[in-house]
Amino acid sequence: MIPVKNNVFWVGKTDWELRRFHGDEYSTHRGTTYNSYLIKEEKTVLIDTVWKPFAREYVEKLRREIDLEEIDFIIINHGEIDHSGALPELMEHIPNTPIYCSENAVQSIKGHYHKEWDLNVVKTGDKLEIGNGKELVFVEMKLLHWPDSMACYLTGDNILFSNDAFGQHYASENLYNDLVDQCELFEEAIKYYANILTPFSPLVDKKIKEILALELPIDIIAPSHGVIWRDNPIQIVEKYQKWAANYRENQITLLYDTMWEGTRIMAENIAGGIKQGDPEVEIKLFNTAKTDKNDILTEVFRSKAVLFGSPTINRSILMSMAAIMDGIEGLKFKGKKAASFGCYGWSGEAVGKLNEMAMKAGFELVEDGLKNKWMPDRKNIEECIGFGERIGKKTK
User: Fold this and answer.
1) Which of 200, 219, 243 is at the close of a domain?
2) What are the pLDDT digits (tens) for 98-143?
3) Which of 22, 141, 311, 370 could form a disulfide with 149 if both were Cys (CB 3.0 to 4.6 A apart)?
4) What number of other Cβ atoms are within 10 A of residue 125's Cβ?
5) Global pTM value
6) Which positions are annotated as active-site residues?
7) Is position 248 within any domain?
């Protein structure tokens, strides 16, 4: 057990080896943690568990710390298996222990495990007395990022157990935000937001305002993944408020795939033209077939404009671009501009397809697009530079 504050302890699992999460959907270059917390007041409360592959290890470790029969209540803030995965193993030992969760979590827990445990529904404002003048106050966090998500707040110690909100996939031997590399921490925090919470930004803003309106003193924010925010914990709340407000930096990102290097040549020369049009803008280029998709989506989140490039194949676009365009549509980015480009040899539909996909994803087109037949020559390269320069000026 690692102390969090007073009678609150971290009893989770650090997963140093994890490199893919949510199946193969999310890259975790720095591993992750599955944060579980134990509160030992007059009542003993366990908040969340760990991912299913570590269930037996987790329960055995917990048994070395306490008699499992001493656990009075289990709180499951979210039914996803990385949070609740050790429940079946744990409940084999304490089958009658009451579990507190949201109404939607009853569905997800039963759907995952098909067990008839003692599930007790709580909603925003409900409280659970745990002794010594302290109580847990529940706050529903619907669609942040599942319909069953909730958080709970420990009075007296002023700890917000925030579930997936304010987390990161970040493994470290140091449990607290003030003890880790700050660049790494915020890199993982913005990646987590961009790839998981962006579609729910209006709800993020609304929920943060709702929590702040309660005027609860918050000394610690303890999320389900990554480090615990004990040093100025409100800093991550303020970051979320910025990220939820159609976030963009002075950055333009070019995403492309290429078949015979023509579209790459276009991308690089368009980038040079953008710099001529706006010398202050930061420009980043990514070949979508060679770059981690979650890192790409994080850069899209940061950008004020994104350019999409692909040669034409089978009257459409290359598969890596199709995949990233689908991911972008699902994340529902707001307030971003776009343009498309690409080489072709015969029919040339790729630019039109990319324009359609960009508009469907909510981007505003600032140019009709630039098509180049065959490999770019000097004249075509000048056209690419001019195209980029116009975009640089239009997106200032």
Assistant:
1) 243
2) 999 999 999 999 999 999 999 999 999 999 999 999 999 999 998 7
3) 141
4) 10
5) 0.94
6) 22, 78, 80, 82, 145, 164, 192, 225
7) no
